[in-house]
Amino acid sequence: MRFLNLPPLLALYFAVTPALALDKTQKDDLIVQCAACHGADGIARDAETPDIAGQHDVYLYNQLKAFASGKRPHKEMRFMGRHMTDGDMRAIADYYASLPKQ
Ligand code: HEC
After folding, report:
1. What ligand 1 atom has the least distance to the C-alpha of 36?
2. Is residue 77 part of a domain?
3. Inside any domain, residue 94
4. What's the CATH code of the domain at 76?
5. Is the pLDDT of residue 59 over 90?
6. What is the pTM of this model?
7. pLDDT above 90 as % of the chain
8. Sign of CA dihedral 10, 13, 17, 18
């Protein structure tokens, strides 16, 4: 009897897991790229790059939008911004806002 419920549960598992995995991978891939300049912890090692750890999430999101649209001009950040979806920007902004400031 208890095995009767297994196939639908497995089907649900396989339907949901790839979507979650994809989302996580995209966010992680982006964070690896950001880390090259902003540091893995959101604290930049180079004086020309701002620290973004612990910054307000809305501010971070707004800057990413502004870079992507060209409203805030910057070559590298425009490139980064144009490779992010709106959801990526929100997820990344939340992520850096959650990191401790130094
Ligand atoms: C090639 C280096 C480089 C990479 C990669 C990079 N950034 Fe930046 N980022 C910068 C620089 C330099 C600035 C400062 C721009 C300016 O002077 O206006 C900046 C600015 C920002 C700002 C604005 C901060 C503020 O205080 O106004 C945010 C937010 C940001 N980056 C987020 C990201 C995120 C998220 C990623 C990864 C998806 C990323 N950056 C990848 C170099 C980089």
Report:
1. 5
2. yes
3. yes
4. 1.10.760.10
5. yes
6. 0.84
7. 70
8. positive
Residue carrying the six token digits 């950040």: 77
How far does residue 21's CA lie from ligand 1's centre (Å)? 26
Domain span including residue 59:
19-98
Residue 10 pLDDT class (50, 70, 90 cuts): low
Cα(22) to ligand 1 centroid in Å equals: 24
Q: What angle do CA 85, 91, 97 make, to 5 degrees?
A: 135
Terminal Cα-to-Cα distance of the chain (whole angstroms): 57
- Pocket probe for ligand 1: among 28, 29, 37, the residue whose CB has the most ligand atoms within 8 Å is 37
What is the number of structural domains in the chain?
A: 1
- Tell me if 10 is assigned to some domain: no
Give the binding-site residues of ligand 1, using a 6 Å CB cut-off. Answer: 30, 33-34, 36-38, 48-50, 52, 60, 63-64, 74, 76-77, 80, 92
